């Protein structure tokens, strides 16, 4: 059940029950649409009709959600951002439409922000800060930021006076609770749909999203992450992070040193300051890949609004990179490192089967995935591109990659890929980094930036690679040694008439085939009666209507047998 309405302070929504119902109604309509066009019509022989308008339908659906998210605000904005990054699950028509949703969030009136900040700090703003600008620096889904100035005594203690204060939107906890309740219900629906459950664990995705969102609503976490980041890069003189003013930090208010400088994507301003944008790109890539490959603790949202270039004549190159907004941080845990090491072994051995198994172990594939076609695709990939270094791959005609992608595109789209949260954050971080660097330097090549780290990782794991390779060889040798004895035992049982064969799986296959044939025939009958009814209705309204009604019977057989067959 959704939480009861409490008349929260957020002017966007005052009735949490109404909010819950709106989300549920939207999701229900969307699921019915997808069910009809993606499941029912293809099963009754109308796949071409269903596919004809699919991109347009997906775009319209994404636009409707876009509008809903902007109207409701709160966590729905985060849902849109989350969905826009799930390239492993959603079609590009949806992900593209939802890009940039964060930039469209309208700011709250200052009176609401003042009331929320004073309630949280336990004092008037005039007492907490010497100055507090009413115009926000930025407005986001969960809060908004304002510039302020500390009183002299506190400024003397921390060593600076100018700060940026993030204030959480009033009533956001209730809104988040309602939104998560609705999303969990939708996730439960999706789990019951076989075509979805085979490709994605929807409830797990919801819980991933819930954990990330709840962490972002606690500014104490963000403050701690900001300090962890600062400690992590302390030995890097060209990287900086804002200092946390803990005296003005609570769960819903965050005060940081104002480190505003040149936006990293502003090439014109960089050149005006005597800074080469290409050098900024090199440093930014090195810093980000250092975080990903060496430190294992990284900024997962390094978009241009979260990275500043600060001129500094005292450091190499004459500038520093200053990161802000640590609400989304990622880690590369030991388990993921081990999984990636296993993938490296498979790539080194050009073992497509082991590679696919490794992909499953790191959580990219659902456990019950049928991986035979993917193994074949990987075999082809190894045969064409295996053993090439980064420099060689860079020289390959991009059309070859496109041809390979087109050849095996259906395989990859049909596979139940699901990127774990850590994987998703890594890909997001690398993608943003590559985009920013390409903007600064059109000649930037991500291969060149990644190659040193890939080589380092392979060298570091060489001992483990050799050990695991030897283990694999020992396993093969053991199987080979046992093979003659097992073959002899099999022949003996055959000669003595004691060999039995289990045909249960074959019988189940035949039964399934019979059901599919029955459903196919019902589909043909449905299509025929429906089309006949449509054609006859203009000349004989009664007979045409009867035929159209009768077409529902075979349609019901198709749908119900499919539904119960999955249970």
Uncertain residue ranges:
1-14
- Going across the biggest sheet, name each strand in turn: 1-2-3-5
* Number of beta strands: 10
Percentage of residues assigned to helices: 55-70%
Q: Mean pLDDT across all residues, rounded? A: 75
Described by strand count, sense and barrel closure, the largest sheet is: 4 strands, antiparallel
**Cα distance spanning the termini:** 26 Å
Beta-strand percentage? 5-15%
Task: Write structural notes for this entry.
The chain has a 4-stranded antiparallel β-sheet with strand order 1-2-3-5. The chain has helices at 16-43, 47-52, 54-72, 75-84, 92-97, 110-121, 125-128, 152-158, 172-191, 194-197, 202-216, 219-232, 267-272, 277-295, 334-349, 352-361, 372-385, 390-395, 398-407, 409-414, 421-440, 446-460, 462-495, 504-536, 541-550, 552-565, and strands spanning 131-139, 143-149, 162-168, 239-240, 253-257, 262-263, 297-299, 307-311, 319-323, 329-331. Helix 14 (277-295) runs antiparallel to helix 21 (421-440). The model is unreliable at 1-14 (pLDDT under 50). A hairpin with a 7-residue loop joins strand 8 (307-311) and strand 9. Among the domains are: 16-107 and 173-216, no CATH class; 334-464, no CATH class; 504-565. It starts with 15 loop residues before the first helix and ends with a helix. With 567 residues, the chain is α+β, with helices and mostly antiparallel strands.
Write out key terms for the chains shown:
globular; four-stranded mixed beta sheet; 26 helices; 567 residues; four-stranded antiparallel beta sheet; disordered N terminus
């Amino acid at each position: 059940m959704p939480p009861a309405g409490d008349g929260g302070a957020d002017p966007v929504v005052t009735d949490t029950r109404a909010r819950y119902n709106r989300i549920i109604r939207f999701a229900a309509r969307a699921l019915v649409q997808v069910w009809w066009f993606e499941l029912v019509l293809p099963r009754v022989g109308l796949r071409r009709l269903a596919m004809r308008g699919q991109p347009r339908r997906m775009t319209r659906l994404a636009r409707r959600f876009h509008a809903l998210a902007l109207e409701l605000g709160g966590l729905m904005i985060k849902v849109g951002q989350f969905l826009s990054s799930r390239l492993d699950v959603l079609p590009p028509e949806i992900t593209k439409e939802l890009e940039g949703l964060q930039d469209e969030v309208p700011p709250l009136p200052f009176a609401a922000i003042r009331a929320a900040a004073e309630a949280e700090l336990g004092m008037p703003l005039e007492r907490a800060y010497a100055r507090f600008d009413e115009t926000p620096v930025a407005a986001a889904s969960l809060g908004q930021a304002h510039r302020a100035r500390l009183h002299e005594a506190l400024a003397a203690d921390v060593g600076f006076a100018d700060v940026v204060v993030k204030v959480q939107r009033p009533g956001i906890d209730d809104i988040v609770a309602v939104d998560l309740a609705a999303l969990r219900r939708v996730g439960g629906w999706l789990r019951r749909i076989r075509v979805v459950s085979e490709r994605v664990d929807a409830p797990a995705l919801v819980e991933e999203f819930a954990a990330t969102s709840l962490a972002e609503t606690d500014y104490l976490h963000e403050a701690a992450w900001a300090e962890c980041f600062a400690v992590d890069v302390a030995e890097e003189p060209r990287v900086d992070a804002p200092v946390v003013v803990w005296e003005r930090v609570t769960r819903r208010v965050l005060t940081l040193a104002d480190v505003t400088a040149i936006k990293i994507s502003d090439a014109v301003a960089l050149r005006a300051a005597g800074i080469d944008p290409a050098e900024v790109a090199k440093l930014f890539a090195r810093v980000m890949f250092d975080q990903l490959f060496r430190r294992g603790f990284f900024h997962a949202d390094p978009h241009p609004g979260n990275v500043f270039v600060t001129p500094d004549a005292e450091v190499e190159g004459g500038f520093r990179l200053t990161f802000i907004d640590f609400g989304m941080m990622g880690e590369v845990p030991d388990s993921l490192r081990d999984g990636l090491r296993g993938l490296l072994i498979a790539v080194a051995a050009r073992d497509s089967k082991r590679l696919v198994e490794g992909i499953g172990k790191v959580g990219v594939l659902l456990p019950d995935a049928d991986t035979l076609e993917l193994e074949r695709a990987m075999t082809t990939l190894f045969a064409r591109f295996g053993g090439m270094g980064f420099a060689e791959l860079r020289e390959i005609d991009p059309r070859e990659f496109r041809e390979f992608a087109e050849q095996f595109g259906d395989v990859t789209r049909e596979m139940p890929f699901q990127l774990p949260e850590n994987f998703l954050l890594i890909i997001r971080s690398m993608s943003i980094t590559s985009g920013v660097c390409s903007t600064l330097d059109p000649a930037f090549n991500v291969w060149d930036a990644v190659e040193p780290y890939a080589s380092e990782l392979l060298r570091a794991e060489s001992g483990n690679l050799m050990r695991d390779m030897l283990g694999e060889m020992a396993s093969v040798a053991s199987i080979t040694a046992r093979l003659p004895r097992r073959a002899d035992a099999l022949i003996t049982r055959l000669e003595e008439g004691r060999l039995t064969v289990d045909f249960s799986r074959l019988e189940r296959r035949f039964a399934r085939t019979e059901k599919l044939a029955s459903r196919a025939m019902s589909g043909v009958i449905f299509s025929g009666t429906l089309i006949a009814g449509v054609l006859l209705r203009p000349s004989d309204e009664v007979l045409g209507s009867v035929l159209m009604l009768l077409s529902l019977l075979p349609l019901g057989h198709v749908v119900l047998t499919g539904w119960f067959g999955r249970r």
